[in-house]
Amino acid sequence: MGQRTDASVVLRLGYQAIRRAGLPAETILSKAGVALNQIGTNERTPLSAQHAFWAAAAEVSQDPDIGLHLGEHLPLYRGQVLEHLFVSSDNFGEGLKRALAYQRLISDAFHARLVCEDGRCYLTNGVQVVKDKMINRHFTESAMCGILRFFKFITEGQFKPIYIDFDFAQGAAAEEYQRVYQCPVSLGQKETRLYFDPAILRYPLWQAEPELSQLHEQLALEKLQELARYDLVGEVRRAIGATLESGETTLETIATHLQITPRRLRTQLSEANTSFQQILSDYRCRLAKKLLANTHESVERIVYLTGFSEPSTFYRAFKRWTQETPVEYRKRKQR
Fold it and tell me: What is the pTM of this model?
């Protein structure tokens, strides 16, 4: 996997939480470098945007426990394919196992698994090796609020956490965790874990629609395949960026860079409803616009940086992209 990403709903829920909490939402987004239109789109966002969001929220609010407190304002997670997987299941345990198989649809930060052993049951997100502890803490505490609220909704209030382990050493006061989560919390553990009574796994779901189970499973699988294609396009873009100045940006060189055959790359991009030439052209267009609008690089230098062998070829391509010459575009943007 290349760049790790979140579904757009992750930032959207965070944005709604800061608004509900009465915090200056636009200030926090601006400080995080997140555009408001990123909140409303269905495009996935880099995990770095989420990290920047929590850092900005902590700085603006001056609340050392901002993740925990914003978690109290999170809207209920509804209307996504993982909810459909739950509600079409016979019981909570079956719904949980099905949802875990497709958790990447929410975020690449999630890789939880269900463990039932020695009469106890818990969800764990595994051992996190590389991360920013404080930023991760805010996201983890907020996400835990959202998970508990969703589990209680699905089980009509019957789901109750027994206790929670967090893998960060510094956190909120014990009584604050007790107030928000309604259970004890232990810090500095090797994994983040949510413990609960195994009996809840057998809890029948009143919303169960077994006849829709297969349909929802197919929808989740298609979404996961779509995400894999999204990953490939991202990998191709990054490979183009790494080879553009060398003048060796071809389907064959990019395929070699990605360690697959050119034929396989062409097929996979076709399945993603795009092509290598389309991605290359889009990358060059975006780069040229950025350099013309935001720098004083000469047009000749930009020709080189965007991987064109001749200025005339660049001029024709740019006119096709924007209906303007590079000079006209720069004057308009920098004016």
Answer: 0.71
